[in-house]
């Protein structure tokens, strides 16, 4: 009997039918919860099953509409029953996190991320009806360093080994997802490497770092930032869920913003430090409300990261609505950040200083 998720032919490259039963992990997080709401509003999808180890807030549960919430830890084999008994044909894994919810340190987070993905993909492999898997990955797997290319392509790799943190977890999770695709070539596996997200509603280490009244910076370094608006992150996840397009895709907005420019546009006060020493790490920890910062985060704040998103546009068919600059400005407006100093005054001082330097130089 042909399942709702089967292809029109036996060719694994043939187009997929639209999904009928979609399971979304990480339903209590911003992306998972709002993606669930979007999919539940789509009348072409028969069922949406939202999964998380925590119970969603009443507001999030209301937003999910007709979606069915199942409280389950994806590290538990019970997730296989949920997929099999629910006749799931599409799985969106959006549960990987850069910080542990509630109590638990780095070891707990790694277990949640990596062991959870292993169990989930093993369940997908054994479920005959599953025909597509979408993984929310991250651009952090490319790392950040002074030796980075102008733009990372999907075939690029980090210039130095990733030994810890969310980037290392994400690299491992991608490996398990590709393994699933090799073992089950009839499943379309989509890997979305999302640029650092920002927006008025999403809470991230980057948004908190830039919201502080004083932003620590490194003398002589000015990171190049490519961002992704939170709504574009939801948009590309929704498109990938419906399209069932195999492959790996860099996802980011057009253009870049320099760290110094971001600080000026938000009216923050830069605090140049001579090195990434104890004071920098301590400031970052306070700025992120205790979020664990490792050397990968510190490198990003120093060098930034920019990706080539050609494949996103030409093969996946997604075009972000917000540019990097527009996404950042929407974040500033949406958060209601009160300038510590007027950005217009800063620009005026810079212009006068530049003019003075040019006169002296001539």
List keywords for this structure.
elongated, disordered N terminus, single chain, 362 residues, 3-stranded mixed β-sheet, 17% strand, alpha/beta, 7-stranded parallel β-sheet
Q: How does this model look, in words?
A:
It is a single chain. The chain is an alpha/beta fold and 362 residues long. It is built from 13 helices and 14 strands. The strands form four sheets. It has a seven-stranded parallel sheet with strand order 3-2-1-4-5-6-11, with helices on both faces. It has a three-stranded mixed sheet with strand order 12-9-14. α3 packs parallel to α4. The longest helix has 21 residues. It is elongated and about 75 Å long. The N terminus is likely disordered.
TL;DR of this structure?
The chain has 362 residues and is α/β, with parallel strands linked by helices.
Biggest beta sheet summary: 7 strands, parallel
- Determine the strand fraction and express it as a percent band: 15-25%
Looking at the structure, what is the overall shape? Answer: elongated
Counted beta strands: 14
Radius of gyration: 22 Å
What's the tally of helices? 13
Cα distance, first to last residue? Answer: 81 Å
Order of helices and strands: EHEHEHEHEHEEHEEEHEEHEHHEHHH
Given the helix and strand composition, which structural class is it?
alpha/beta
- Measured as a percent range, the helix fraction is 40-55%
């Amino acid at each position: 009997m042909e399942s709702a998720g089967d292809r029109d032919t036996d060719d694994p490259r043939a187009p997929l039918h639209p999904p009928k039963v979609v399971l979304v992990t990480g339903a209590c997080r911003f992306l998972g919860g709002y993606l669930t709401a979007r999919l539940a509003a789509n009348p072409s999808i028969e069922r949406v099953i939202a999964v998380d180890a925590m119970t969603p807030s009443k507001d999030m549960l209301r937003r999910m509409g007709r979606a069915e919430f199942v409280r389950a830890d994806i590290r538990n084999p019970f997730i296989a029953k949920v997929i099999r008994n629910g006749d799931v044909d599409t799985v969106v894994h959006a549960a990987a996190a850069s910080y542990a919810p509630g109590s638990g340190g780095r070891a707990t987070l790694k277990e949640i991320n990596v062991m959870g993905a292993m169990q989930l993909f093993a369940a997908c492999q054994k479920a005959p009806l599953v025909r597509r898997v979408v993984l929310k990955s991250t651009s952090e797997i490319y790392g950040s360093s002074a030796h980075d290319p102008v733009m990372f392509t999907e075939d690029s790799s980090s210039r130095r080994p990733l030994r810890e943190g969310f980037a290392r977890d994400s690299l491992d999770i991608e490996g398990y997802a590709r393994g699933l695709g090799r073992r089950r070539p009839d499943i379309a596996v989509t890997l979305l490497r999302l640029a650092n997200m920002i927006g008025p509603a999403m809470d991230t280490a980057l948004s908190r770092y830039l919201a502080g009244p004083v932003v620590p910076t490194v003398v002589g370094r000015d990171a190049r930032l490519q961002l992704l608006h939170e709504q574009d992150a939801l948009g590309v996840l929704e498109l990938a869920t419906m399209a069932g397009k195999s492959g790996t895709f860099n996802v980011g907005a057009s253009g870049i913003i320099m760290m110094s420019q971001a600080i000026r546009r938000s009216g923050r006060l830069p605090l140049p430090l001579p090195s990434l020493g104890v004071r920098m790490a301590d400031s970052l920890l306070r700025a992120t409300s205790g979020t664990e910062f490792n050397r990968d985060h510190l490198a990003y704040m120093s060098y930034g990261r920019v990706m080539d998103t050609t494949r996103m546009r030409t093969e996946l068919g997604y075009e972000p609505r917000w540019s990097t600059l527009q996404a950042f400005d929407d974040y500033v407006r949406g958060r209601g950040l009160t300038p510590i100093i007027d950005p217009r005054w800063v620009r005026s001082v810079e212009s006068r200083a530049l003019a003075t330097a040019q006169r002296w130089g001539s």
